[in-house]
Design brief:
The chain is an alpha/beta fold. It has 46 helices and 16 strands. The strands form five sheets. Strands 10-11-12-7-13-14 form a six-stranded mixed sheet, sandwiched between helices. Helix content is 55%, strand content 8%. It is a multi-pass membrane protein. May be a general defense protein. Residues 569-825 form the ABC transporter domain.
């Protein structure tokens, strides 16, 4: 850089200041990339939120517009020369859109990039920035050529764009059957609808179309191509740089998720202390009887550390959507993502393994030798690392939480079944013994048991001539030479590598789950199928009839008017504060609270359509959330009154509707069912019963027609970005769900975002019709067209920082707004036919304030408009004479029984249409039953049991089948409940139902599906294993299994309801599994449990389950004698004396087993009603 400066001085060159600054900045080492990043962030307006978390559906982060700009910035910050950008303006104000497209225009012109952008509602000034236009309809290109020729093309077809009509809006509407006729300019000729095919034919024969065809038909001369067109690598960085970048990102995510990792480590430490005191060495002797307890403690440690890896599956699945996007855009290869995910988890595995081993090893009383302690630690460290690797691998192939949960449990089941403890290798069928060598748990068990039982203290010789340690290993089928320890270590390392290679391969080859479905009308389907290239006569008649109805009924909403009370909402000096983010404090911001709204005063009146506008991040959604009572955190100050009375949230929810910016709906419900469900629960009981009559009542039909959803009423909503409705259709469904509640006050947060000009016009016509019925309607809105903007009556304009700068009428052709701002000294005049909303945002931007030296908020506070608004607020804050405060005899519109029926109806539909949840868990149980039946073939038959090992084996079977069926139910229900929880939060805020009605409905919905699972078990596994075919024993087993699967299911629901996300829920659930495992009576029999932990044994559901299973099957076998530890005992006596399972406890056990599902279900309902983890 010094040499460049020297030569410039010698040549007398004065560099451009901007170029000089840029060159000096990038010449500094390490600043070249950050300079590019900072520049793009500045262009995108993201510099003000650079240190704020992005957020998700449960945690409020940056605004919707900022998220959209972040997506755009993520793409253009790289060296790409070809950009394909879909609907980049969604959620952005017109001023910001203009700035972004201006940047794209410069990129295209200066760097010769190819940029194709699809826009829904571009403002005229944004439209003018483009060079070429591609216009499409019905999957065909109607026009492709220069922007300057497109209007003349349509004029040649007989259509002309009127004044004060944006060119982009005209181009979209001229192709619509409903809107085309108004642009017909040949008044002397009869108008006939011009189809997309006819436009295409006219374009092909036009000069522009022929020129385009000629260019396409001419072969491209490769030698004339730019050198940048030839790329030698699909990635922009070297392999080392890619790896370093992925390492840095993964490390940052680990720091941000430190709470989860710390929680897991503390959980392991707590469980280690519990386990150590259960197997306390003062209670353990070095003999054959206590050797079983040592063996159980070693097995338990392995199981616990494997179960501790379950949360890794949820964390891996949650990261996959972002990974797939970045992989498909060639940010990095899959291996560069997989390697850091593995390596950075190794220290965590080591810390957690040390935490477990250092606490439990000496408490339990394993061999006190340093070398054996380290070997013990090494095995546990490797099995824990292998567990994390296995669950990541499962996540990469299953891809969703529901499928991943089942896949994870299935993988764990296979590993455990062939692990050699539940069923020892000698007891396995000969043709399945090979499975023992394919389970990592087998090698870990060989390593741990050999490390312990080949120690010097186990070298006592028995009467059979072998050492005590060898005798114990022989009984378990684990009698291998000492060098097998190192073979086991090598095998475990091999499994770790195998799982991680499988993880990388899965990330490489698997495509993202699902794609968005395009939903077309029946008319277009008929046309596409070629059944009638014009439109069928019936369809034509139907459409003409519909148009006639619309023309004869200008106010369609007039037919759907139901009784309501017009209400005004007024608010004075509203302030809103949140805790200052840690990132801002680190940068020197000293205030503890960050103020997002500053003394907002205003009012919204009945019959007046009000627009709430401002640049992205100005606080529009924040203000709506505060007024609607949707904020769950922060401090709100100020007075909010409804009809002159102080707002009470419970009653306000009954008379208001809120169309949120994010469209949250149940994915497995159809459009019509979603609207009917809302009407069922939100219309008051006073409405005529015919209106609420199911299936779809007249009122619901009218709402669907008003919002133009009637043609897709039977389409499933689906999951955004994966399947179901498009963005436009979801937005209209959100509006319909709120309109059907017949509210007096409606808040709509960006109702036209994501819609094209025609769809936005449809929505706004519906909104205007609703306003004309006397309702109070408030909309936040971005980049409206002139037509849409001037459909509003009142405007509240906010600037960044949460301050009002205008609150008053628009006037005819926006004259009031224009007069107000043009009266401010220095504000440039609006150009002819310029969009007033765009001009307004441009002249009030932060940069313009600095340029003019004006604070628009202070100008507004000093204006007569502010005084008039303040007077209006004071007047509306006084209740009118003869009115009463809002009051309803009941908290909810419907009685509890109606709420329960509606919720149950919806849950029934959701469950039936969720095969990924219900079918998969039923298939899992079927496969598990067959696997256990084959492995334990007839081993439950009392005649096949001859020693204590036979009883241990069948108890292991009971324990394994129950535990894994239960864990699978628990794991699979958690993601299903989690998806519905965000929908439940929206519906609860709306006051649709009591949380208890919702929770009882979900609890009740599980019962028939559990019954199906029980029937499968009883008619597959029960006979294969060889349990007794006696009526009493059969029904005891059926009842117990039914209760067990239910309490595991309700446990999963409860875990989701008491935790903020599914990752934390998985951690708590895994802790429950491990305690259940320890206190079930299988690993440690009840007589061996220390007195101070007996309460945990009796409060463990699994101990009661195994008690019933074992006593009903074997507790009455007094005649059957077997060899147990060198003496002869009856089976019944051994069950009673060794395991502590007693027949006289059966009646109590029956009651307790029924109580556990009730207890967990009640906790689920209580948590749903009292806890809210949505951060807004």
């Amino acid at each position: 850089m010094k040499e460049v400066i020297r030569r410039e001085k010698e040549a007398g060159i004065t560099p451009d200041p901007d170029v000089d600054t840029y060159m000096k900045a990038i010449s500094m080492e390490g600043l070249e990339r950050s300079m590019q990043t900072d520049y793009i962030m500045k262009i995108m307006g993201l510099d003000i939120c650079a240190d704020i978390m992005v957020g998700d559906a449960m945690r409020r982060g940056i605004s919707g517009g900022e998220k959209k700009r972040l997506t755009t910035g993520e793409m253009i910050v790289g060296p790409s020369k070809a950009l394909f950008m879909d609907e980049i303006s969604t959620g952005l104000d017109s001023s910001t859109t203009f700035q972004i497209v201006s940047c794209l225009q410069q990129m295209a012109h200066i760097s010769e990039s190819t940029i194709l952008v699809s826009l829904l509602q571009p403002a005229p000034e944004t439209y003018e920035l483009f060079d070429d236009i591609i216009l499409m309809a019905e999957g065909k290109i109607v026009y492709h050529g220069s922007k300057s020729c497109i209007m003349s093309f349509f004029e040649s077809c007989g259509f002309k764009c009127p004044e004060r009509k944006g060119a982009a809006d005209f181009l979209q509407e001229v192709l619509s059957r409903k809107d085309q006729q108004q642009y017909w300019s040949r008044h002397t000729e009869t108008y006939n609808f011009v189809t997309a095919d006819q436009f295409c034919d006219k374009f092909r024969v036009s000069q522009i179309g022929q020129n385009l065809a000629g260019e396409i038909s001419t072969p491209y001369e490769k030698s004339e191509g730019h050198k940048n067109a030839l790329s030698y690598s699909i990635y922009s960085l070297s392999k080392l740089e890619l790896l370093k970048a992925c390492f840095a990102r993964e490390l940052l995510l680990m720091k941000r998720n430190a709470f989860i990792h710390i929680t897991k480590t503390l959980q392991l430490g707590l469980l280690a202390a519990i386990t150590g005191t259960v197997f306390l060495r003062t209670h353990m002797g070095v003999d054959r009887v206590h050797a079983n307890y040592y063996m159980g403690s070693l097995f338990y440690a392995l199981i616990l550390l494997m179960v501790n890896g379950f949360p890794e599956l949820a964390m891996a699945v949650s990261k996959l959507p972002v990974f797939y996007k970045q992989r498909d855009y060639n940010f990095y290869p899959a291996w560069a993502y997989a390697v850091p995910a593995f390596i950075l988890k190794v220290p965590i595995s080591l810390v957690e393994s040390i935490a477990w081993t250092s606490i439990s090893y000496f408490l339990i009383g394993y061999t006190p030798e340093a070398s054996r302690f380290l070997c013990h630690l090494l095995v546990l460290f490797l099995i824990h690392t292998g567990s994390l690797s296995m669950f990541r691998c499962v996540a990469s192939y299953c891809q969703t939480m529901v499928a991943g949960s089942v896949g994870g449990v299935m993988s764990f089941l296979v590993i455990l079944l062939f692990g050699g403890f539940i069923i020892p290798r000698p007891s396995m069928p000969n043709w399945l013994k090979w499975g023992f060598w394919l389970s990592p748990l087998s090698y870990a068990e060989i390593g741990l048991t050999g490390n312990e039982f080949l120690a010097a203290r186990w070298l006592k010789y028995t009467v059979s001539g072998v050492t005590l340690g060898r005798r114990i290993l022989m009984d378990r089928g684990l009698n291998f030479s000492s060098y097998f320890f190192w073979i086991s270590i090598g095998a475990l390392i091999g499994f770790i590598l195998l799982f991680n290679i499988g993880f990388a391969i899965g990330l490489t080859v698997k495509r993202p789950p699902g794609t968005s479905r395009a939903i077309i009308s029946r008319d277009n389907l008929t046309t596409f199928n070629g059944k009638d290239q014009r439109i069928s006569k019936n369809t034509e008649d139907r459409m003409h009839k519909k148009q006639a109805e619309n023309s004869s009924t200008p106010n369609r909403t007039g037919r759907m008017v139901l009784p309501f009370t017009p209400l005004a909402i007024s608010f004075q000096d509203v302030n809103y504060y949140v805790d200052t983010p840690a990132e801002m404090r680190e940068q020197g911001y000293m205030e503890r609270k960050l103020q997002l709204l500053h003394n907002i005063t205003g009012a919204f009146q009945p019959g007046v359509l009000s627009a709430l506008m401002g640049v992205t991040g100005a606080g529009k959604t924040t203000l709506l959330d505060v007024l609607a009572g949707r904020k769950t955190g922060g401090v709100i100050e100020g007075d909010i009154k409804i009809g002159g009375y102080p707002k009470v949230q419970q009653t306000f929810a009954r008379i208001s509707g809120y169309c949120e910016q994010t469209d949250v709906h149940s994915p497995q419900i159809t459009v019509g069912e979603s609207v009917a469900y809302s009407a069922w629960l939100r219309l008051p009981t006073e409405i005529d019963s015919k209106t609420r009559n199911f299936p779809l009542q007249e009122f619901v039909n009218q709402v669907l027609e008003t919002i133009e959803l009637d043609e897709i009423r039977d389409a499933l909503v689906g999951i955004p970005g994966i399947n179901g409705l498009s963005t436009e259709q979801r937005k209209r469904l959100t509006i319909a769900v709120e309109l059907v509640s017949n509210p007096s006050i409606i808040f709509m947060d960006e109702p036209t975002s994501g819609l094209d000009a025609r769809a936005a016009a449809i929505v706004m016509r519906a909104v205007k019709n609703v306003t004309d019925t006397g309702r109070t309607v408030v909309c936040t809105i971005h980049q409206p067209s002139i037509e849409i903007f001037e459909a509003f009556d009142q405007l509240m304009l906010m600037k960044r920082g949460g301050e009002l700068i205008y609150a008053g009428p628009l006037g005819h052709h926006s004259c009031k707004v224009i007069q107000y701002f043009q009266a401010i000294s220095g504000v440039p005049k609006i150009k002819d036919n310029y969009n007033p909303s765009t001009w307004m945002l441009e002249v009030t931007s932060t940069s313009m304030e600095i340029q003019l030296g004006v604070d628009f908020a202070q100008v507004y506070r000093d204006s007569s408009m502010y005084k008039d608004k303040d007077e209006l607020v004071r007047r509306l804050s006084i209740p009118p004479l003869g009115t009463n405060n809002l009051h309803f005899p009941t908290r909810y519109p419907q009685k509890f029984w109606e709420q329960f029926k509606a919720c149950l109806w919806k849950q029934c539909l959701s469950y039936w249409r969720s095969p990924s949840y219900n079918l998969v868990r039923i298939v899992f149980l079927t496969v598990s039953c067959i696997a256990f039946g084959v492995l334990y073939w007839q081993q439950g038959n009392i005649n096949h049991i001859n020693d204590q090992q036979g009883l241990f084996t069948i108890l292991g079977c009971m324990y394994g089948t129950t535990l894994f069926a239960g864990i699978n139910n628990c794991q699979s229900v958690m993601p299903f409940v989690s998806i519905e929880r965000s929908v439940m939060y929206r519906e609860r805020f709306a006051g649709m139902y009591s949380p208890w009605a919702y929770s009882f409905a979900q609890v009740a919905m599980e019962i028939p599906y559990v019954f199906v699972q029980i029937m499968l078990f009883m008619f597959i596994a029960y006979p294969l294993i060889g349990y007794a075919w006696e009526l009493a024993k059969f029904f005891w087993f059926l009842y117990t299994m039914f209760c067990t699967l239910l309490y595991f299911l309700y446990l999963g629901m409860m875990m989701v309801s008491i935790t903020p996300n599914i990752q934390v829920a998985s951690i708590l659930a895994s802790m429950f599994y491990t305690i259940q495992n320890l206190m079930s009576g299988f690993i440690v029999p009840a007589p061996q449990i220390p007195k101070w932990w007996l309460w945990l044994y009796y409060t463990s559901p699994m101990s009661w389950t195994l008690n019933v299973f074992f006593t009903t099957q074997f507790g009455y076998e007094d005649d059957k004698k077997i060899e147990v530890f060198g003496e002869t005992k009856s089976v019944a006596a051994f069950v009673r004396d060794y395991f502590g399972f007693r027949c006289d406890l059966l009646p109590l056990a029956a009651v307790v087993l029924a109580a556990f599902p009730i207890f967990f279900a009640t906790l689920f309902g209580y948590s749903i009603s009292k806890l809210n983890f949505q951060r807004r």
